[in-house]
């Protein structure tokens, strides 16, 4: 299974994913951004963009990386990654479905003011114009398709630990429903 944590920058995906990994037995974090970083190393051969998700190889490489890691390790992958382009999410989710990999898709949501404040006050990455420019595309994706495609957890007033617990509880409840005998 994959537990995909989506949402824009500042929603708490990276921090929450590490905490979710501690709460779900036999799980590990696979950050799809590392796949993008690998592609960035060969950037001279790719089109000029500031977002590696626009490079066509990124999406199937994420699918294949996740598939191979799951085949090797089993268990659950917790994948924190912003995907705001519906076509890209469809490619990834369809690719995982072709390999019969169950995906629990969560969106860590916060209101725009909270997201902006988190990005501007980030003590690790510092304020980031790159991260801030995704606030509006996130709002548009949330309004048009993203929230309908996922389980939304509003992190506006939650700590990362509280958000992680909500994700882990939802995953556990889904596992219990699947394991229960049908009437």
Automatic annotation (TrEMBL):
<dbReference type="Pfam" id="PF13671">
    <property type="entry name" value="AAA_33"/>
</dbReference>
<protein>
    <submittedName>
        <fullName>AAA family ATPase</fullName>
    </submittedName>
</protein>
<dbReference type="InterPro" id="IPR027417">
    <property type="entry name" value="P-loop_NTPase"/>
</dbReference>
